[in-house]
Amino acid sequence: MNSAAIRSSEASASFSADGVTYQKAGPADDREIRELLRSNDMDSWVRMSIEREPSFFHGENLAGQSSTVIARKSQSPQQVVGMYSLAMQQAHVNGVPVETAYLGALRVNPEFRHRLRILKNGFASARALYGVDEMTVFTSVASENVAARRLLEANLRGMPCYTPAGEVESMGFSTRQGKSAGLLQPATAADVPALVEFFNSAAGSYQFSPVLSKEWLTGLPRSGGLRLSDFWLLKDGARLRGCIAIWDQRAFKQIVARGYRFPLNILLGGYNFYARLTGRISLPRPGDELQQVFLSFLALDNEARDNVDEIVREALLISGQKGARVGTLGLSAENPLALRLQNRLHASVYRSCIETIHWPDRPAPVLDGRPPQPEIALL
Fold this sequence. Notes:
Blueprint: E1 14-17, E2 20-24, H1 30-39, E3 46-51, E4 65-73, E5 80-93, E6 96-108, H2 116-130, E7 136-142, H3 146-152, E8 161-174, E9 184-186, H4 192-203, H5 214-218, E10 231-236, E11 239-247, E12 254-260, H6 264-278, E13 292-300, H7 308-321, E14 326-332, H8 336-344, E15 347-358
Parallel strand pairs: 6-7, 13-14
Antiparallel strand pairs: 1-2, 2-4, 3-12, 4-5, 5-6, 7-15, 8-14, 8-15, 9-10, 10-11, 11-13
């Protein structure tokens, strides 16, 4: 996975408009960024905050180069308005590895929401600070967030164009469903060339799927929560037939429950008792972290697809041995393995719409119809 350089037009470090300064964040901004993440949760049937403790920057540059912008009022007191991140990575577009930019971690403090000018200027800052015009830019929006999608897809003046490319299903599985089938073995340095070739060949069938490289696999930092031995392989003698990685990011990235809608808020204990009996996910109490790991980089040949539920069960067993209660796997909604797993395992499913972003004065990315399947551990 080659590290893609973030472009910076005229080496700019900040961009100002309408009384707000958008500035590239550094360690001095760490406390305010972590507070933004804690206090701006995602509202659904469960309110969850995605947090980065003990330091936001411990989770940066996982598979390429990433950068974060923090927005503040320009005049004193310099209130924090919001933030966003850009993660540059090599990904497949129309089957070819290209440089892409993922726009994520968009947070706006409540008192500044519904101010379209701030949103428009935030997008303008991405162009000014990073020169993203020449890259394929994509993002994800919760499929059920109809209001946000309606605004972003409206092609309003001064806004970039959002174009839906398809849906990704993030499936959470309780590790209580884990079971060994004796199919998987940990990868070694000798497996790297075959692993890179096998995964990239399969991943090219999907838009925005990551590109593995020998350099990335052999240089994984221990602090990133992923080692080569966390890749588990399905082999038939010397022939590689499948792979899956167990990526534990809990040391620097946490999903914390903040509250539940009625009636689950008063029935949580009863639901969790039912979940334990049936092998479903037990939900954390408000304020507690969901103990999850990512089931990442799944690729199987045609024959191995018949064993996908056994492979995932074995990965869940290994995940449980790491202390995780949930293994989360993201697949395209058009990937037949997603439906198969939902039919055979108890899954909690969260759907996201993958959208491309381009500006009206630039050509729109041309996609050839392959469904999107980015690696959700990198989003």
